[in-house]
User: Fold this.
Amino acid sequence: MDLTYTPDEDDFRARLRRWLGEALPTLPPRPAAADWPGRRAYDTTWQRMLYDAGYAGLHWPRDAGGQGATPTQHLIFLEETERAGAPYVGANFVGLLHAGPTVAAEGTAHQRARWLPPILRGDEIWCQGFSEPDAGSDLAALRTRAVRDGDDYVVTGAKIWTSHAEVADWCELLVRTDPEAPKHRGISWLALPMDAPGVTVRPLRTLAGTTEFAEMFLDEVRVPARNRIGDENDGWRVTMVTLSFERGTAFVGEVVACRRVLAALARTARDNGRWDDAALRRRLGRLAAEFTALWRLTQWNVSEAQRTNGVPGTGGSVFKLRYSHARQELYDAAAEVLGAGALDADHEWVAARLSSLSYTIAAGTSQIQQNIVAERILGLPKGR
Amino acid sequence: MDFRLTDDQEALRAAARELLAGRFGRERLRAAVGDPALDRGLWRELGAAGFFALRLPEAAGGVGLGLPEAVLVCEEAGRALLPGPLVACHLLAGVVDGVADGERIVALADAAQGPGWWEHPDDCDELIMLEEPQGKPCGAYRTPAAEARAAAPPPPSSVDPLTPLAHLPGPSAPRTPLGAAVDVPRLRREAALLTAAQQLGSASRTVEDAVGHARTREQFGAPIGSFQAVKHLCAGMLVRAETARSAVYAAAVTESEQEVAAAKLLADEAAVRNARDCVQVHGGMGFTWEADVHLHLKRGWLRAESWGRAHVMEERLAAELLAG
Ligand SMILES: Cc1cc2nc3c(=O)[nH]c(=O)nc-3n(C[C@H](O)[C@H](O)[C@H](O)COP(=O)(O)OP(=O)(O)OC[C@H]3O[C@@H](n4cnc5c(N)ncnc54)[C@H](O)[C@@H]3O)c2cc1C
Assistant:
């Protein structure tokens, strides 16, 4: 049980802090939430700055162009960038956290050389085309068909809830290449160029009023077979590699941010008089315990990942279950602090309250996470 | 940073588990339900195994380990439902003669912050109270057990069959200062943490019991653990226990007042809620005296009342939000 950092890690933190202190003031102003081209430009500018400073793909292996940092260094990076108010990974999320690591782990030398450097430099944005109208939690039920025709696959089908589809250059696409095989065995993973003829993106409006995700229609889109990562029909296994990355480290910075928001809630409550309500104080006190524990749970999971060479374990599901719920509780408490102000959709906490509702749905719903915990960690039998 | 247990810590935990399984297995546990008098022989063995002297320096006959190790031992005791003032004896070893080796048994109670009772009055030799008696400074005071019992109203009938209780004595009982060496805030903090560790042990034990039952009990031609409603109860239990574990272990390392408060709050919740869900997973069997789960629930309730109840810890954490 060692929570201290080595001199090397302290040094890494100090250098990072120094760099953040110099780099952040040079960033352009943040674009408006609805300005997607502006957001893409902002997020890729930041990624380019990270690249030039040697912080891009920190947790990626060196032979994939990453820095080969330890999980602990990655944790420090996420903690410090959040503390300093640096931009989130934003539009680079899929490239850095799913598609890139998948190409790095499963791609050929040629594929790695083609796709990894542009992700690290912020030149290319990826999105994730997994979910379909009839394949959500039961992802393996996906039906988008890819039929081999010479050197190409001809892809036809529909994807949905595709985040950042409007601004993406590439899509990590799951397709069915063998309709006869059992559902997990007939899937392949393709890199789809978003500007290919036959790709139509139609933005969907979320309950927060924004257009964070989209529907994507694929009408006989030709995708070169060399864009397939892994073997034909082996896409399910290839995909599972990505999903474990998604659940492992995606929320570290957010936990740090939530602790800051909580302190801001307390100060606001003191200033507007709601602090006199013992029930509210106790609620905030409990949330403080919650986020303290979540931060420690993150350190626990990172320590475990260190043992498994960076691949996050099932602890990620435990974390995601608790965190997604805690985040919703946090912004419900914010609404209590704000009182009637909680009806003002422009307030930052109100927007966050609305978007917090997606946390128990996206990246595997809470019910699915509970199934995973029960079956894979606790060993309860599969079934109903 | 490596938050995982070291090999030595793993070994210590395994040894504590083995000792408790051997000396306080299910048969002994059930016998204690009928007769909760403490087994002084067992207490001496725990003393010999270093449960109490764990953190005393080796030069003073102790084991020379730290708070994280004490947390692991208390966690195991909580798992095994070991009755008796383990936390008190651990904290007062080296302060009260004879406690370190298990010869003397002492209770520790916080008269200033509650809950106003102490455990195992008939088995303890002495009661140590943290209080501020009239005209005296706040500190730790000792009272012989018999005199403490005599100066108190008739004892309540304890909800936990393994933990007899007595009210704290009135002002007529004699009190001698325990000596200058006692750091009261630290004693309170460590008592809260070690109590949380016991809660954690109980919380993870009830996960195991629920899961074990869910795997074997069949209804509708299938193990009940294959029904999602049961699965999700079990998953929720694990999430509670593991979240509490991170908080308790971290508090053992940092010893910060805030982290101890967080640990106590989350471990109390994990112990009590997990015991209740464990009752539910056991169905009618869970509602019997015969099943052990009610013993976890009742001890969980008892510990949740001691060394920082939920509202105290929540207010403390809230105040810190403004200070930080
Ligand atoms: C903000 C946001 C962004 C997203 N971004 C992307 C993206 O970029 N790319 C992408 O591919 N997908 C994305 N998704 C999709 C997301 O992965 C799916 O929404 C999610 O997997 C659930 O699938 P579904 O919406 O079809 O719901 P369903 O699977 O239909 O679930 C509906 C309800 O039924 C429950 N349920 C379903 N099956 C079970 C079961 N076996 N046991 C118990 N309960 C069950 C669910 O928990 C849920 O409550 C995003 C979603 C959101 C909200």
Remarks:
- Chain A has eleven helices and eight strands.
- The beta strands of chain A are 126-129, 145-149, 152-163, 170-176, 187-193, 199-204, 213-224, 228-229.
